Amino acid sequence: MQSVSLDLDEARWAAVIARDARYDGDFYYCVETTGVYCRPSCPSRPAKRANVRFCATAAEAEAQGFRPCRRCRPDAPSQQERDAETIARACRMIEAADAPPTLAQLARGVGLSPYHFHRLFSRIAGVTPKAYAQARRRARLRDELKESRTVTEAIYGSGYNSSARFYAAASETLGMTPSAYRAGAPRETIRFAIGRSSLGAVLVAASAKGVCAISLSDDPEELLRDLQDRFPRATLIGGDETFELYVAAAVGMVERPQSRFDLPLDMRGTAFQQRVWAALREIPAGKTASYAEIARRIGAPKATRAVARACAANPVSVAVPCHRVVRSDGALSGYYWGVERKRELLERERKP
């Protein structure tokens, strides 16, 4: 345990030396000779390593008698946090609107130029404002289809101003016809197969659009039951010989998690989950990010717990690397397929 703590401190010190703003908010460093605490990105000349200790929060640093640095103002929101809050406000505007706001309306609402707003939104959220609005509208449509009396009511209730425009993109929006979705996808066919890896059984399932599940377990029957629970009214059939390519790709990712998964994915989730999953795919192999860091990247700095839930809901292990997300102190937290598998996947990625 002490070795893990020392490794974490050395990683933090490297971030301080590099003035890496990506770690702002993840920890603070305290200088015993001056009595101040700073952000990792503080432009001040770094103190000697022997005089530095680390704290997880500003409150912890102040409780130990340190005062905030006047240059980096660690007790105030960072520029990264202010940018994240700006994008979070824009996301709330999109979610509250009956029809998708225009780029100009959104930019005006947060006090930025359209050009600057578009770049900032894309960088933090990982998608464009238009793509986020479309994802939000798709999520609203799914809810409306479950509650409305007719498909037409659901279409207009979710913000589409034309049924023709909706039906033209219905397959992309739902992965099936609206009536099939409304009925619980009874006609959808899901192919699946179970392979073996050094970390246990690997189940791979795919719809007509792409891979919709990659699961890990010691018990193949448990994997099949979980798949049936996810798609209770779909027709599940065993994959043919060509489907073995899907299984081989998934097993390859387990054995070599630093490799790329290039097969198409059919990721079904809320707009928030889609943002989290997109951010996970941006974490390089061999690296990790905290739940809080992911929350800031997607413009929802206060949604750390929601990010953790989205990671747990990730249906395609290894292809969307939720195993690369750790706690702010670097410790491994829960992993749907087992913490030991998470540890092993990370260790494999760090090997050359």
Number of helices: 16
Task: Please provide the ordered H/E string of secondary-structure elements.
Answer: HEEEHEHHHHHHHHEEEHEHHEHHEH
Helix-and-strand structural type: alpha/beta
How does the overall form come out from the CA principal axes? flat
Question: What amount of the residues lies in strands?
Answer: 5-15%
Mean pLDDT across every amino acid position? 80
Q: What is the makeup of the main sheet? A: 4 strands, mixed
Helical proportion, percent range: 40-55%
CA distance, first residue to last residue: 25 Å
How are the strands of the largest sheet arranged? 3-1-2-4
Strand segment tally = 10
Low-confidence stretches: 147-158, 161-176
Global Rg = 23 Å
Can you describe this structure in just a few lines?
It is built from 16 helices and ten strands.
Give a verbal description of the structure.
Strand 1 (28-31) and strand 2 form a beta hairpin. The model is unreliable at 147-158 and 161-176 (pLDDT under 50). This protein has a four-stranded mixed β-sheet with strand order 3-1-2-4. Strands 7-6-5-8 form a four-stranded mixed β-sheet. The two termini are 25 Å apart. Helix 3 crosses helix 4 (103-110), helix 4 (103-110) packs across helix 5 (114-125) and helix 14 crosses helix 15 (304-312). It is built from 16 helices and ten strands. It has helices spanning 2-17, 58-63, 79-96, 103-110, 114-125, 129-147, 151-157, 163-168, 170-174, 178-182, 220-230, 244-255, 271-280, 291-297, 304-312, 339-350; strands at 28-31, 36-38, 52-55, 67-68, 189-197, 200-206, 211-217, 235-238, 289-290, 325-326. The chain has 352 residues and is an alpha/beta fold.
